Amino acid sequence: MPWQDLLRPRLTHPGPVTDLDVGFLRSQAVQGIVLDVDDTLVPAHVQVIPPGVVDWMAQLKTLGPVWLVSNNVLVSRIGDIAEQLNCPYICGAGKPSRRKLRQALQGMNLPPERTAMIGDRRLTDILAGNRLGMYTVLVEPIAAPRWQQLRNLEDWLVNILLYGNPT
Ligand SMILES: [Mg+2]
Questions:
Q1: Rounded to whole angstroms, what are the CA distances from 22 to 28, 56, 132?
Q2: 3 C-alpha vs ligand 1 centroid, how far in Å?
Q3: Interval 129-156 mean pLDDT
Q4: Which domain holds residue 31?
């Protein structure tokens, strides 16, 4: 696989994660899910789970196990969110490292090709998931992210890496 492909999600979803069709994931033979937390499920600067996330998570869990895997090192934050959603979690994951994703997949007892990695960032979530051969889904942030300029810089860099120009 050309290295640029590692930054391309299998599915680019043009909306927040709560709009993502669980039935479509089922049609792709996804039987286990790793979910990013900050800006994917919950805005990074708030602790309150947005309306709709709890219901969507209940649908998602009909596919199989759902693990939260976050780069955030704050156990208090990620642990609290995971408890409210009743999911196993790993924090300080260091994505795009594969190590903690492998740990989650071992916990699910599923091979990568039957699992999905869903997140809002290419350089962490998508890169990590593609390195393992998971079904990768890029979603829009669930609310306007606090670090919009950093995100713009990341988009600019990824566009140069993928297309050779900052479109
Ligand atoms: Mg995120």
A1: 10, 8, 22
A2: 22
A3: 88
A4: 3-163
Distance from the alpha carbon of residue 23 to the mean position of ligand 1, in angstroms = 23
The CA 116 to ligand 1 mean position distance, Å, reads 15
Number of folded domains that form the chain? 1
Regarding pTM above 0.90, the answer is yes
Q: Give 40 or 51, the one with higher predicted confidence.
A: 40
H/E/C letters for each residue in 86-127?
Answer: CCCEECCCCCCCCHHHHHHHHHHCCCHHHEEEEECCHHHHHH
Q: Which residues contact 83 (CB under 8 A, 6 or more apart)?
A: none
Distance 76 CA to ligand 1 centre (A): 17
Question: What is the CA(167)–ligand 1 centre distance, in A?
Answer: 23
CATH number of residue 129's parent domain: 3.40.50.1000
The Å distance, Cα 120 to ligand 1 centre, comes to 5
